[in-house]
Amino acid sequence: MVRAGVLLNPIAGFGGALALHGTDGLPVDRFDDAVRAGRAAARLVRALDRPGSPGGDLELVAAPGVLGSDALTAAGIPHTCLSTTGHPVRTTRADTIAAARRLIASGIDLLVFAGGDGTATDVAEAIGESLPVIGVPAGVKMHSEVFSRSPEAAGRLLDAVISGLATFESAEVLDVGASDETGVVGMLRAPRSHEPLQGAKTVAPPAASAVVGRAIAESLVPAAPPRTTWIVGPGATTGAVAAALGMAATLRGVDVLHPDGTAEPDVTEERLFAIVRAAEQPLLVLGVVGGQGFLLGRGNQQLSARVISSIGTDRIHILATEQKVSGLFPPVLLVDAEPDPDRAPHPLLGYRRVRTGPRQSTVLRVIDAAA
Question: Most CB atoms closer than 10 Å: which of 12, 173, 182, 265?
Fold first, then answer.
């Protein structure tokens, strides 16, 4: 019998489509909106609601209220809840840390937590490497190595632990520090099995990315139709294309350059959808997360499936340095998107050309991270 603790950051991921880059510092008056949106709760349920898994060998112990138990109760997932005495309705990172420590004190064997890099940082502060954790990706960035590739992958990893088919190793926790640069802020123990973790984000030297981006821009920009609406995804390589267009990219957001030269930085998903529906010639330049291979689902949730469909896959240019492409193992690109209500596959899946230079490219397969 495996006794797994369950911990949820109830507001994780709320800022993705809203171009907030995370929920750290979310105004108090938006907390309830984030909980109602329920993105992190839905992803936690996707990980733990696993038909056909060895559930008889698993006991779930959830943190109280919005920190876990509410989501499992609503989904009908059996669990034991820690005492709710004195538990606040609107939680802070201090509550997350305290709940993680209480779960350990209750005698759990491992901790399943749902959130982003900020939540992983809190868990690392609370428990360090004292017991294994499984990170369910539910935030905005998720650059840390401790996360699974998708909620479904987290569920399969939990099955491997229950079946005794996993080993445990240290995993890096990455987050954005005071200098606005991503770095290692802690370590956690994570299970390893045939179900891979997503890996830690790797960052190519900015100069190398800029050189590749400028070189690609020299061939890409002149060949674009005259009424092109440029949509620039996050990253240094795509940012160099923005610079070639005369636009200052935000690097961490999705930016738009209209045909009349007007720039809109850091747009929301709703605004982006309206823009691409009205555009004559929308064109998206999209980067690859180094070391992970993610195209969508890590820091660019503004690029939803409906936005991608409206742009058209023939008007999407995927850019990456040769160093990023050669560092992918296995050599595939990943999409971690919300399930389509009609169960339609994501429009970007399949084999896609990746530009690695002005006259160089390769073809990689884009797969669903949940598969």
Answer: 12
